[in-house]
UniProtKB/TrEMBL annotation, chains A, B:
PANTHER family: MONOACYLGLYCEROL LIPASE, MONOACYLGLYCEROL LIPASE ABHD6
GO process annotations (BP): acylglycerol catabolic process
Pfam families, sorted: Abhydrolase_1
Transmembrane segments: none
Protein name: Alpha/beta hydrolase
Keyword Hydrolase tagged: yes
Length: 274, 274
């Protein structure tokens, strides 16, 4: 079973139907994947996800309104986190670990701070804290203004030859699933999600209360040259959390975790197994 | 063969007799250990050194004037680095990796920048760059002013119960060698070494030229609460080197690498094996 071949399952909660895929080991704390701006289950890197799933259960899902899930995408991180919590509890999972990338990292922070018993450990990549520095609109606008084979090449990778080569390999891996792929979204997803991210970063918080409330072990992974969420965010998050490790990768942009899949998987395993 | 039991060997270069100990695998690039302020071969953590030596050759040595080596301790990082280079070349080693801790990290930076063919990879822990922020005299002075079982407990570990417990375990491990221990040094070592460290941090450099000259892969490991060399040094070094990874550990002081020996060894292996 792999991310590319896992069957899409469904969970009904109220009038919402969540789409999700499970893979990996059956025993152990499951790792729940929280996806980036406009991303679906099929936007994850199969190499990263399949390798992590060798030693633990992994669950990818689409939050409300995304891909093959129904419902309406909310425009706040807090509501998205509440929806993710409904999904976790709907699956009857007593405890989960979280891997949150970009927008997903914001949900992971809220969930970890609010639910110390439900969330065991968090890995946050390409993250920004409440009140953090973001350049979403400018950078995304510039990336879409340039014609190219995939907007993730300028958005997730640096301009160097090595990083772009790694980016093309990532994009090819992420296209591996042919059957039952999640549909891409439109403005009904990107608009509320952009509002949520911008609102999160605009909301200054007294003494970084959310991060200070996170007592669980946290692994913060970031690229040296993330243009949307600069790496100083990651350093500041590390300093504010009481039990965080910081990992910064060289010549890497927002998609640092997909640029060095083997390295990232090893670091995740070391962290989750401790 | 372990750090506690390895035979002390000697290498004569000119009128200097270097003391060193070799352990671990015979094949592979050797990892040379570069020690901290006033430290000898016996100041290393046997758990860290022995675990790293399971998969590669490891060499500990005393630089000029330290412990069981002869000669006079110089008062500049540059001369200490030149002496270390003589030692490496005296052993006929074509290439080495370096693990430099604190003062040793400064030697590692100079060696990596000056000798791209001799130095393959560097791991620098508790490091400061040229022109970096240091609080050596105040912090060491305060630590010696408080009576305690070992000055490394306040200097290398944070005041939390967990960190101090890890500190006591480290000190106990570092005392394991009973026979043929290196003698502790006096002012003839601490004075020139302090001058070297303070001079290194006081010497501002145009555009961080030393760090920018380091093209080799570098792993920067630092504690969240290093009182002598604040963690922002590590972040700034990461940003200035072109191929560095940064790893910051929580609730950890200058001795972060000895507080989490298993984690540090795993991270070193991942880095050195890549």
């Amino acid at each position: 079973m792999s991310l590319e071949t896992a069957r899409t399952e469904h969970l009904d909660i109220g009038d919402v139907r969540f789409a999700f895929r499970r893979l990996g080991a059956t025993a152990g704390t499951p790792l729940l994947l929280l996806q980036h701006f406009t991303g679906t289950m099929d936007s994850w890197d199969p190499e990263v996800v399949n390798c992590i799933a060798e030693s633990r259960p992994v669950i990818a899902f689409n939050n409300l309104g995304i891909g093959s899930s129904t419902g309406r995408t909310p425009d706040t991180v807090e509501q998205m986190a509440a929806d993710a919590r409904s999904f976790i509890q709907g699956l009857d999972l007593p405890t989960v670990d979280l891997l949150g990338f970009s927008l997903g990292s914001m949900l992971a922070q809220v969930l970890a701070a609010q639910h110390p018993d439900l969330i065991r450990k968090i890995i946050i990549a390409g993250a920004a804290p409440r009140g953090g520095e973001e350049h979403l609109v400018e950078v995304v606008g510039e990336a879409f203004a340039v014609a190219g084979p995939d907007v993730r090449l300028p958005l997730f990778f640096t301009p160097t030859e090595e990083s772009q080569r790694a980016g093309r390999a990532f994009v090819a891996r992420a296209m591996a699933r042919k059957e039952n792929r999640d549909p891409d979204g439109g403005d009904d997803i990107s608009e509320p999600q952009a509002k949520a991210i911008i609102g999160w970063c605009a909301s200054k918080e007294e003494d970084q209360a959310t991060l200070r409330a996170i007592a669980q072990p946290a692994l913060v992974v970031h690229g040296s040259d993330d243009t949307m969420f600069p790496s100083i965010n990651a350093y500041n998050m590390f300093k504010a959390m009481r039990n965080a490790q910081l990992l910064l990768y060289p010549d890497a942009g927002h998609g640092a975790l997909f640029q060095y899949p083997e390295r990232f998987v090893t670091h995740c395993r070391t962290f989750l197994d401790e």
